[in-house]
Every structure is written in C-alpha cells, then in structure tokens.
C-alpha cells in the first residue's frame, strides 16, 4: 500500500468504526445524526472508551454506514468481542491511531448466599436502574438505601447490583466510603482517585482539585454504562463529586444518613426484617433442622435480635460454632435486656460497635446540632414507654419545642430514631438498649429523676388543660398546681382527646416508672391521677383510671393533700360502678364523703351525695338514696352552685322514676335540664338530657326517653360532641329496640359505631357494637349478631370487663341456637 494505507487483519472496534466512517466520508457529528445517536457516543466508541456497544447501537451504525451483509456480520462480531478479519477493507494510515481501551471494572463484592426477604426493596431498585434491551435512558439513575447500622443496607445493595449486570455491560465500581467506620471516613479526594484509577486513569494525571477530578470522572464515565456502588457514605456532600454525569450510568448509595437532599434519587429506607424473614435468615445460618426443632426459641431469638440482620447473623454464627447448644440456651442468655448487647458480638463488627459508630459521628461533628443530638440520645432513652413526641422531648431536654423537633429529626436522619408519625418517634429495641447503657455510664442518676419529673409535670399540665375543656365546671380544677413547664395547646376537647389517645399508654408507663424512683414520695403522681380524670371519664378508661389511682389516695394523705385525696377516693368508685360492682362503690363513696366533711368542702360533699344517690338507687336501697339526694340538693342550694344543683336534680329525678313517682321525676329533670340550658355548658346540658332519657328508658317510659334523647342528640351535634353523639345514638337504639322497631334501632346503633370509630374511641365502639348485636339477635339475624358480638368482645377486652362478658355470653347463647328477646340493659351507657 506504499505506506499510505494498510490492510486490516484482527482489529479493535474503535479502529473498525473509524475506518468505516472514513470510507463513508462522514464526520463523527454526521454519523451520529444519521444513526440517531449522540456525537458523544460515536466519540467514546472510536476512542475505545467503550468497547461493547448495545445491539441496537450496532444495528443503527450498520444502517448509517451502508455496510454490506458481510461487513455488517464482521462489525457485529468485533462489537461482541469475538475479533474480526475484514477481507477487503483498507484502513487509511491516519485512522490507525486509537487510544488503548479503558479497562472494564468488575468490583462488586459477592452476593450473600443466604440473602433473605427485601423483595419489595429489590424491586424498587430494579424499577429505577434496570434498562431493558434496546431501551435508552435520559438521566443518571440514582438510588439511596438508608437505615440504621446493621440493618442490611450493603447486603441489599450488592444483591440488587448483581441483578443489574446486564443493564451495565461496561462494568461495576464498588467503593466503601467508611462514613461511619471503621476508621476515619474516606476523603472525597481519595475516593475520586480510587474510582479514576479503576477506570484506567494514570495516577499522575488525576487533578488534586475536587471539582477538576469530578469533571474527569464524569468524562471517563461518559458514553459508558457503568454501575457505581458507593457504600457507607457520610452525607450528600461526600458523594456528589463521585457520581456519573451523563445518562447511561447509575449509582447506588448506602448510608445511615437519609440523604434526602440528593436530588432526583429514589430513596429507600430499610426497616427491620419481619419475624418470618428473621427466622428464615437464622435458619440459613444455623440450619433448618435446628430451627424446626425449636421454633418458639427461634422466634424469640429473632425478637431479641431486634430483627436486625447483623444481630441475627451474629447470633446464628455463635450457634453455628456451638452445634451442641440448644437455641433456648442462647434465649436464656439474652433474656436480660440490660446485658443483651453483650451477647451480640464484642469486636468492631458487633451491634454495640455499629451503633456506637453512628453516635461517635455525631459527637465529633463540626455541627452544633449533631453534638446536641449526640448528647440528647442517652437521655431520651431514660423514659419508659413506646415512643417519644416532640412536646415530651422538649420538656425532657429543657429546650423549646422547635429545637426538640430539629434534634429528633437529626437522629432520624442518622436512623438512630424512627419517625412513626408526624412529631412522634420510636427507638429500635437495640438502639434503645445501647442508649440506656450509655445513659447509665454518662448521665447521673439524679438527672435521670429530674428528667422524668419534668416529663410528669408536662403530663400534669396537659391533663389539666384537657379537663378544663371536657369538664369546665369541675371542682377538681381548683387543685391544679401552677404548670412548671410548657404544655400542649388544645383547640378544643376533641383535639385534647385525640392527643391523649396517642400518648395515654406512655403516660401510664412513665407514671409506673416513677413509682420505682424517689418521685413516688412526691405530689406529682397523685396530682397526675386527678388531672387525668378529664380524659379517663369521657373515654371511659376505667381500668386505666384504677391503675393510675391505685395507692394514690394514701400517698396524697401522707403528703398532706387532703382534698386531692378526697377527690381520688370519690373517683375510685366510678370504675367499680361502671364495671358492675355497685356494692364495692358504696364504702368508697362513703369514705370520700367523710373526707370532704373533714375539710368542710361542701361541693365535694354534694358530689358524693349525688353519686351515692345513683349507686344506692341501683342497689334498690331507695330510702337511703333519697336521703342522700335531698342532702345533695340542700348542699348545692347552700353553695349557690347551680352546676351541682343540676347534677343533684338529675340524680333525684332518676330515683323518683324508680319509685314510680313520675310527676316528681319530671319536675326534678326539668329543673336540672333548665339549669343546664342557663349555664351555657353544652356538655353538661347533654349529659343531663341523655341521663334523663336513659332513666325514662329503664322506667319503661319509652316515648319520653326518645324525646329527651333526641334533644340530647341535637345538642351533641350542635356542639360537635363526638362522644355525646355516640352515647345518644346508643340510647336511641335501645329505646327503639325495646319497642320492637329493630330497623330504626339498628340504624341508630350503626350510627353510634361509626361515630365512635371515626373518633377512634375503641371502648365506645365496642359498646355500640354490642347494642347492635343485641338488636340483630332479637331481629333473628343470628349470624350477623354473632359476628358483631365477637367483634365487640375483642374491642372491649381490657377496657370494660363487664361488657366484654356480656358480648361473649350473647355470642355463646346464639351459637347454641337459643333465641334472644330484647330487653333494656340496666347498665347505663
């Protein structure tokens, strides 16, 4: 060829493409336009940066270059890496120079053999990053996988990356950025150098400047389909200069940080495994035979491991190396929560070390917020209870609520807390154990107690605020201490109820916790029990009222708080009455009356007398009941207290109804209801109307009952009293039920169920559903009635034992095939 050209023998793709393009007289830009490709794609192929294009790219080039069938076959063969020997193509000498091809990296760690679960998360990653054959992409695919240490982020990411091999034929890059140890985090500069060397860059040619190195990295990845797995990243700032810049490549980033500021990424938050997945993973480590032999122990081990993959593998590895150990032996060893972390590894791969590395990251951060969050974590774990809300955290840490929210969110960012709802947070069991361990080491016991005291004072203030809305005329309100901390702001009684619905179990748990500390000898717990009346009574949480009030009367007396003691004594009778033990209520109320007499408290005496009127009337001790009723009226007149007078009139009216003296009953009811109307207190008016309606119902005055209860329903609707709506519908259901109008009765019962369900009032929902079951049974719809009664029993379990028993007995009666005749239940609603 006289030195002007050479005959190609075995050639590279870059040489062959350049020769075909030159022969066709096309520039790179012209070929790109003709083939429907980017100019960049042609450039990287000719440079050798990409050596194996997609099949659809090869076909587009074959058509644009007008290759013969033989040339097309040879071109495809070279593109697939099988080499080629074109028989007639002559390559011009200026087309011979081509850069050496960039090495193809395959750096992924092996996928876990016993990978378990996470199907939804794998599918989510594949849906973002998998590229079907023949399809193109218009952007860089980005997925972040975040979660607490040991949750399985790396294992998941590696598993997904292996499934994506076909979509990224130009290689996989893997880099552990050591964001949370072991050792110091990798600098961005070092990470860039590692990636660029893996892509064939000469170390001497890599710029020291981060932005310049980032540009070089993006250039090296341009036109290629490479998957980059950046493991254990610190934050977004660390990873941004390491990401591809052109469509075609993609990245998966794992971190304990949420990385929510990484734009255009799909964010996947890993939670603990399910129980079944945890047991499956344990089975994969120790063998299915051992798990099958002790299934209960295996489930308990999964629970003790917090369903955390790292912890399960550590437990499983320990058992695998000790084949003679029963699983139950390790269950017994891990039973004590305080020392459980000791059984989950002891070196830098242990659960304790994993959690400690996250805390160390915060402690050594340059950001004040991070250091404050690190200091808060041990104190947050001091509290018993299932979760933390922002207001409680503010009281605990003695910071404004807004700052408390920022601290909690930062801990969520690092997956040291879980956000279970707006402004509500929860510890993972093992992080809680670690944090409590750290609290024992770093927080003095006296500060533990002061922190718990601040939280109890917060709950006391919240309780009084709630009671002021639900019982604005309650004489208990006069006994409230001045709030020593901020308190929740409730717009109305409904919002107060909902707040305590969510926080009530925490209140109970932390009150029980205080009983084990010197706080048990302070006035905090008796006042808390009294303040919570405003929630317990409307929600009919009688068992919790008993639980919280137990021993509080004696404690209040010891502390010189006689009126708090007297009101707690009175209120202790209410659960007994509601749960059907009227006899037990009488001595409690009698003692409360004596205690009020000793303090010359006429309002307390009046309330005790009206309560005894009702209870003794139910016990048919009518003469005693009437005497107490008249005394209650006399006391309220002496006080000039129309609220107490109205309550006493309703109690006396119910008694006259029992005696059959309907004229006197109506006079007393009219007086009590009129005083309620004059007071403007809609809740009090409602209670008087509905109680009068129920009294008429029990007395057999059904039409009068319906009239009064419909008035009560109107008052409840007008004042948006959801509890009242449910009560009124239930009373109307009973009235129509006893009249034999089952259709109307069922409609009211169903309305009562719906209102209670919307208000998330489980106890009242159960009571209304029980009424529905009674009417369905009387109407002959036994199958419906059985289902309704069983559901009611489940809802009432642990909330109202007497009504739970009623529901269970009704279901059992119907299942035996017995008939049921509707009658008015003598228990009040």
Automatic annotation (TrEMBL):
Boundaries of every HTH cro/C1-type domain copy: 17-72
UniProt cross-references to SUPFAM superfamilies, sorted A to Z: lambda repressor-like DNA-binding domains, P-loop containing nucleoside triphosphate hydrolases, TPR-like
Pfam family, one: HTH_31
PROSITE patterns xref list: HTH_CROC1, TPR
TPR repeat extents: 646-679
Source species, domain of life: Bacteria
Ion transport is among the record's keywords: no
CDD domains assigned: HTH_XRE
Keyword field: TPR repeat
Protein name per the record: XRE family transcriptional regulator
Source organism (scientific name): Kribbella hippodromi
Lineage of source species: Bacteria, Bacillati, Actinomycetota, Actinomycetes, Propionibacteriales
């Amino acid at each position: 060829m006289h030195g002007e050209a050479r005959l190609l023998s075995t050639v590279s793709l870059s040489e062959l493409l350049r020769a075909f393009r030159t022969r066709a007289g096309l520039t790179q830009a012209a070929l790109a336009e003709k083939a429907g490709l980017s100019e960049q794609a042609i450039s990287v192929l000719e440079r050798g940066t990409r050596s194996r294009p997609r099949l659809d790219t090869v076909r587009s080039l074959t058509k644009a270059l007008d290759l013969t069938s033989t040339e097309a076959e040879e071109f495809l063969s070279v593109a697939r890496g099988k080499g080629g020997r074109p028989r007639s193509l002559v390559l011009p000498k200026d087309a011979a120079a081509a850069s050496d091809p960039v090495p193809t990296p395959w750096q992924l760690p092996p996928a876990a053999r016993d990978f378990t679960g996470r199907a939804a998360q794998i599918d989510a990653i594949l849906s973002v990053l998998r590229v079907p054959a023949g399809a193109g992409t218009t952007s860089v695919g980005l997925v972040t996988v975040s979660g607490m240490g040991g949750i399985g982020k790396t294992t998941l990411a590696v598993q997904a990356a292996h499934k994506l091999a076909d979509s990224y034929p130009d290689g996989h890059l893997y880099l552990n950025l050591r964001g949370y140890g072991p050792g110091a985090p990798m600098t961005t500069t070092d990470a860039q150098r590692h990636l660029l060397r893996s892509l064939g860059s000469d170390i001497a040619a890599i710029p020291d400047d981060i932005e310049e190195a980032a540009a070089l990295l993006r250039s090296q990845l341009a036109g290629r389909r490479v998957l980059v797995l950046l493991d254990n990243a610190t934050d977004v700032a660390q990873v941004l200069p390491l990401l591809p810049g052109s469509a075609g490549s993609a990245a998966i980033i794992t971190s304990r940080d949420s990385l929510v500021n990484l734009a255009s990424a799909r964010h996947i938050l890993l939670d603990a495994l399910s129980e079944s997945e945890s047991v499956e993973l344990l089975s994969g480590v120790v063998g299915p035979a051992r798990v099958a032999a002790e299934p209960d122990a295996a489930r308990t081990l999964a629970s003790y491991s917090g369903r955390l993959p790292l912890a399960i593998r550590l437990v499983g590895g320990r058992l695998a190396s000790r084949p003679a150990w029963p699983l139950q032996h390790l269950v017994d060893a891990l039973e004590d929560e305080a020392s459980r972390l000791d059984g989950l590894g002891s070196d830098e791969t242990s659960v304790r070390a994993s959690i400690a590395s996250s805390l160390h990251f915060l402690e050594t951060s340059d950001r004040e917020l991070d250091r404050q969050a690190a200091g808060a974590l041990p104190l947050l774990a001091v509290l018993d209870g299932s979760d933390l809300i922002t207001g409680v955290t503010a009281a605990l840490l003695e910071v404004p609520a807004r700052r408390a929210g920022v601290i909690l969110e930062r801990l969520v960012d690092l997956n040291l807390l879980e956000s279970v709802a707006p402004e509500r947070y929860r510890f993972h069991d093992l992080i809680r154990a670690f944090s409590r361990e750290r609290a024992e080491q770093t927080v003095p016991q006296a500060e533990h107690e002061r922190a718990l005291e601040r939280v109890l004072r917060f709950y006391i203030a919240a309780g009084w605020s709630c009671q002021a809305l639900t019982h604005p005329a309650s004489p208990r309100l006069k006994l409230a201490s001045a709030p020593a901390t901020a308190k929740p702001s409730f717009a109305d009684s409904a919002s107060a109820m909902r707040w305590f619905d969510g926080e009530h179990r925490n209140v109970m748990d932390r009150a029980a916790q205080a009983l084990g500390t010197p706080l048990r000898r302070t006035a905090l717990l008796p006042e808390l029990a009294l303040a919570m009346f405003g929630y317990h009574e409307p929600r009919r949480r009688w068992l919790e009222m008993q639980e919280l009030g137990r021993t509080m009367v004696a404690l209040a007396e010891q502390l010189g708080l006689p009126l708090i003691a007297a009101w707690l004594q009175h209120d202790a009778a209410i659960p007994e009455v509601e749960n059907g033990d009227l006899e037990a209520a009488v001595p409690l109320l009698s003692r409360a009356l004596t205690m009020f007499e000793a303090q010359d408290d006429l309002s307390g005496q009046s309330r005790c007398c009206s309560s005894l009127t009702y209870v003794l009337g139910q016990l048919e001790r009518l003469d005693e009941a009437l005497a107490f009723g008249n005394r209650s009226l006399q006391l309220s007149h002496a006080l000039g207290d129309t609220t107490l007078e109205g309550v006493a009139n309703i109690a006396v009216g119910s008694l006259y109804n029992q005696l059959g003296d309907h004229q006197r009953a109506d006079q007393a009811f009219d007086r009590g209801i009129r005083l309620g109307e004059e007071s403007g207190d809609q809740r009090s008016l409602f209670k008087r109307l509905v109680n009068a309606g129920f009294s008429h119902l029990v007395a057999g005055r059904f039409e009068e009952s319906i009239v009064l209860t419909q008035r009560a329903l109107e008052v409840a609707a007008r004042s948006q009293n959801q509890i009242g709506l449910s009560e009124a519908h239930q009373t109307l259901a009973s009235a129509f039920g006893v009249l034999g109008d089952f259709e109307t009765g069922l409609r009211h019962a169903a309305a009562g169920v719906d209102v209670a369900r919307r208000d998330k009032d489980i106890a009242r929902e159960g009571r209304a559903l029980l009424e529905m079951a009674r009417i369905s049974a009387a109407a002959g719809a036994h199958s419906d009635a059985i289902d309704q009664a069983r559901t009611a029993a489940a809802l009432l379990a642990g909330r109202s034992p007497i009504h739970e028993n009623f529901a269970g007995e009704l279901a059992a009666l119907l299942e035996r095939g017995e008939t049921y005749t509707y009658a008015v239940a003598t228990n009040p609603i």
